[in-house]
What does this fold into?
Amino acid sequence: MSTPAQRGGLPPSSMNLRGAVDLSALKARADAAARPAAARQAAAPSPYIVEVTEQTFPQLVQLSSQVPVIVNLRATYSDQSTQVTAVLEAATVEFDGRVLLANVDLQAQPQIAQAFQAQGAPTVVAVVKGQPVPLFEGALPDPQIRAYLDELMKVAEANGVTGTLNDGSQPAPGDAEEPPLPPLHQEAFDAIERGDYAAAAAAYRRALAEQPADADAKAGLAQVELMERIQDLDAGEARRRGADEPDAVEAQLAVADLDLTGGHVEDAFGRIIAFIGRTSGEDRDAARKRLLELFDVVGVTDPRVTKARGALARALF
It folds into this structure.
């Protein structure tokens, strides 16, 4: 067990993508005809299991002086994350308020991931008295995960963190009421919830017409446009056409959409960049524009986007 690292809290950020679509929800649409979920906090199976955003994270730091806070940096498209999350949630229920489990979508909350220097999902750390305690990365057997948690409780006890949340004296981090969305963002959110992506896109476009620098609206528009494109897409046929027609721009972009929604971000970027590198004219420009839209979907602070921007520059020049 590592000792608490001497790092500070989260870097300041004004980013708030509430109302935009969680990228991980797109995989459900691509893999099955399920209706994708928008980025609101999911109902937790226990009051001691919460979904955390940048806005609610500071509350965790405060609670970590009372109980250890387990931070589960996960990706919902990852089978390993699903496995680890199931073990952590079961253990949290058994601890009955002596720990708090904070599930963090690594893609939707990149600032939290960066604060913990997470290189991938799953990454599990803890916070005790405001200080991070590294636990483990990747999938581990159930007994090994529980051994890490038992060791965490010893570290917490040694630091005087022996409280409980089951007396009702402390609100859960997700209980704080979030400020309302701007009207057009709320309109888009409501449209997403009923599966009307065209209406959501229209609302985001109006928001951008009023505020061209609205980064949340730009990201939301890119996401719902992606959802529109894959809504009725035959994945098998699209991939067959992509293999048979390497120089057809629409065929390559369709496969890139599927790769992205399936969590294969680098593959999606790489496919489009390779196409740009071997083509010219209108097709090349269309591919470039689509790639920039997918950058917005993934998030401009994502290191994979930074890497792909460099590759794009080399392909163009």
